[in-house]
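Listing S7. Sequence submitted for prediction.
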Amino acid sequence: MLKVDKVTKYYGNVLAVDNLSFEVEKGQIFGLLGVNGAGKTTTFRMIMNLIEPTSGKITFNGKKINYDVTDKIGFLTEERSLLTKMTVKQQMLFYGALKSLDEDVILKRLDKLLEEFKISEYKDRKISTLSKGNQQKIQFIQAIINEPQLLILDEPFSGLDPINVELFKKVILKLKDKGTSIIFSSHRMDHVEFFCEKLVILVKGKSVLEGYLKDIKDNYKIKNIIIQGDVKVSDLKKINGVINVVKTSNQLKVSIKDKSFCKDVFEYLKTRNNITKFALEEPSLEEIFVSKVGDEYGK
């Protein structure tokens, strides 16, 4: 288990991370979210023991993170961290040696992973000759070549088409099932919702929302009603408790103050005879994120 306990980090007089605490259990995918500059990268670097916290402590399986522990951690960074003049094989031999792996172990794992990612033919190709998407695959392979117990994924789907996004998803879930603890960070809230059962949202280095995703959604009062049918937006906006109405190509999304106002919308729609869909839905994580982060920035 990874434990971040009351961690604060200053760069000079600049506060980057403010009294942050969270835990990631074995086999759990944990979301660490925030806008650019929120403190995510600083947190990742402290977990990797690349920089020291100003105060607080970080432990993995009860131990302070040092070089022995970092051998058990994988990190896929948002920025490319590949030596592009090397071949794929050379890159993995170099990185694997940094993780204290023997050459025969590295090559055996590399062949298996290249096959899994459907790029076996690129083993002896220079990284600079690969597409952005295939470079991302190499970067992912590099992050898991040591079969990490803890894996940090920062924007893992960057540069990938939908087919390869699905391939990455399968690999990530397979790692989870094997017991790998995963910290997942992305600006794509739909991806976070797909993977993460628990998360924390940072604003200016401080946690502004944390907990299990289900509880966060349950506790967020604003709900959505999805309607299909011939209804005027202007009429819906007049109903008690309606905050906003958004019309898409084939349906309406009506945001209400809380679920108690659902009956007011339903009573209005009972007078219409062409309604084909009426469904109360929880808000998306993106809606909650925008609302919470926007409120904090407005203070």
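Caption to Listing S7: primary sequence and predicted structure tokens for the chain studied. The chain has a mean pLDDT of 93. The domain at 2-217 is CATH 3.40.50.300 (Rossmann fold).
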